[in-house]
Amino acid sequence: MAKRVLIRGLEAGSAYLAYLLRESGVEVDLLTANPADPLLDVPPFEPLFTLDFIRDVLAVRLVQEPEGRYDVVVDSCDVFGFEEVKRALASDKVVYVVGDGWLSASLSLYRSLPVPDVDVDIPVEKTDQFVEISVKYRPYVGGDYSLCSARDAWGGCLYTPMRALERIYAAVDIYAAIMGMEAPRRRLKLEYAVGKDRFYAAIGCRPEGKASKINLESLQVWMYGEGGRPKYVFIQGRVEDSSWALAMYNLARATELAFLLDFGLGGRGALNLAYVGHLFRGVRDK
């Protein structure tokens, strides 16, 4: 078990990892070039912790240079310009966060506005009239683990995780690896947008393969893939459905057969229906 860990970069995932390590008695230094408070994701999500809690309660040291020897180095990224996103929440304009269409969609949906007509395909009203703002990520590289770079297990693409929840889930994986515990240790790209009553999520790099659509009560699921292997899943439903969707996402990180386990007291779930009915056609043909 590691006794001293350096985490490079301040965001929601690195903050949660620091919390888990400190609760386990590990000494943590958090190196950041931006010692502000960028831990907020857009509503309805709340900050995990305040910086005062991280520093004063957990006794995590925020440093500008590594000091001494570390058993493990974890790379994340510093987030710059998130203040613009916070200000956008108070405006009545449609905002496009350059390079992050899903964050832009969440901003608009939360304020009951149309979403920018850019690089996100969500079945809601869109507009080409929007204001551009920027959020910058400064990644750190070369450590033993990374929260700010990943390779999607389904499509193989390299990408930077943008959503706070994906980094938080990855933080749990890294914590488990450092502590010698069992963890999924494979990444699936996760994007999501949340309105006041609707939830949208996409799992995977891009839509590839054959597609099927399942309607089940308030849920709609599009699943892409072939030969028994999923490549991409798009989900829309009520905000109340988000916990189920995120639980299934985490199960899919752990096993290729995740969607066969999508059962509840009401019977088969939407992902079970989509996976068996669609993707298993290719298996039967072999």
UniProtKB/TrEMBL annotation:
Give the classification, highest ranks: Archaea, Thermoproteota, Thermoprotei, Thermoproteales, Thermoproteaceae
Q: What is this protein called?
A: Uncharacterized protein
What is the species of this protein? Pyrobaculum islandicum (strain DSM 4184 / JCM 9189 / GEO3)
